[in-house]
Amino acid sequence: MRVLVVEDERVLADAIATGLRREALAVDVAYDGAGALERTGVNEYDVVVLDRDLPKVHGDDVCRRLVADRYPARILMLTAAGELDQRVEGLSIGADDYLPKPFAFTELVARVRALGRRASAPLPPVLERSGITLDPSRREVTRDGRPIELTRKEFAVLEVLMGAEGAVVSSEQLLEKAWDEHIDPFTNVVRVTMMTLRKKLGDPPVIETVPGVGYRL
């Protein structure tokens, strides 16, 4: 899952991004509304965590623009403006959820994951396929009941493959969903991660390489 955090308080923005990355999410950060619109113009996100009181372009206007453009991401407004009428206003302009500051980080993660499941075709909270069970909220993976320890990127790649429900996923799509904008698109990181992931999942192999196209689980 790929997330954009839009927050002008840099310390808070970076702390949120670091925490979400530890949850095996790919995260980009924008520190103002103009930066948010620039990033959503070139990247496809599953969830946008959006502060309302932003410089350059107000968060409400960012939300309105994304909704008007039918941008596919779900929008979680994260702001100190937490009164009932303010929450209603935020939802009325197109936000999908609203979390006032201060907040518990565990709740933020849960809300982001819930919105991410709704960003495209609805997915169950726990993914199961080919004897593999992946629980994003607990960051746990098992195969035929056997626990499997994965790195954050291996977990993220497996989550994308399982979420595709048998469809082929290209290397470009994996880079888009499991890494952030700082990754070199010409790197072999997808191939290397896939090799280690296959090894950890064990035999018989469940990840198929479709030559010239991508990967399928």
TrEMBL record:
Residues 124-217 form the OmpR/PhoB-type domain. InterPro entries: CheY-like_superfamily, OmpR/PhoB-type_DNA-bd, Sig_transdc_resp-reg_receiver, WalR-like, WH-like_DNA-bd_sf. Keywords: DNA-binding, Phosphoprotein. Transmembrane segments: none annotated. The keyword Phosphoprotein applies. Residues 2-116 form the Response regulatory domain. One of its GO terms (biological process) is regulation of DNA-templated transcription. Pfam families: Response_reg, Trans_reg_C. GO terms for cellular component: cytosol; protein-DNA complex. Residues 124-217 bind DNA. CDD domains: trans_reg_C. The keyword Phosphoprotein applies. The modification 4-aspartylphosphate is found at D51. One of its GO terms (molecular function) is transcription cis-regulatory region binding. This is DNA-binding response regulator. It comes from Actinomadura harenae.
